[in-house]
Amino acid sequence: MKKNLLLTGLLLGFMQLASAQTLQKVVIEEFTGAWCGYCPDGATILDNILTNQPNAIGVSVHNSDAMQNGTGSLITNFYSPAFPQATINRSGAPISRGSWSNAVSVAL
């Protein structure tokens, strides 16, 4: 009898853990370049989002500068963004920097 109660208790505990909400994170991929005059504003906006949203993860994808890498080039070629723009969780087309904060809030 004690074994059945213990197993039932453990089963209920595991069921409760399995149904618990998972922590949602959001990835912001900012398209930027050292040559871009508007990109410092994008970096400031991204920094503010990361400061205010602990579940946000920021990535700066550089294009046509010393910080560019092969993977970043592939991502930039796929999305063909203007600069600075960003994708949120890689869903949809890149969006302008004025929309990043709201898009992150919606995704979270």
Describe this structure in words.
By secondary structure, this protein is of the alpha+beta class. The protein is built from four helices and four strands. It has helices at residues 2-19, 39-52, 70-79, 100-107, and strands at residues 26-32, 56-62, 85-88, 95-96. It has a four-stranded mixed beta sheet. Helix 2 links the parallel strand 1 (26-32) and strand 2. The mean pLDDT is 89.
Biggest sheet character: 4 strands, mixed
The H/E string reads HEHEHEEH
Bin the strand percentage: 15-25%
- Give the CA-based shape: elongated
Mean pLDDT: 89
Name the poorly predicted regions: none
Number of helices: 4
Give the termini distance in whole angstroms: 45 Å
| Overall strand count | 4
Rg, Å, rounded: 21 Å
* Helix share, percent: 40-55%
What structural class results from the helix and strand content?
alpha+beta
Can you list the strand order of the major beta sheet?
2-1-3-4
Summarize the structure.
By secondary structure, the chain is of the alpha+beta class. 46% of the residues lie in helices and 19% in strands.
How do the strands and helices of this protein lay out in sequence?
Blueprint: H1 2-19, E1 26-32, H2 39-52, E2 56-62, H3 70-79, E3 85-88, E4 95-96, H4 100-107
Parallel strand pairs: 1-2
Antiparallel strand pairs: 1-3, 3-4
For this entry, give a set of tags.
46% helix, four-stranded mixed beta sheet, alpha+beta
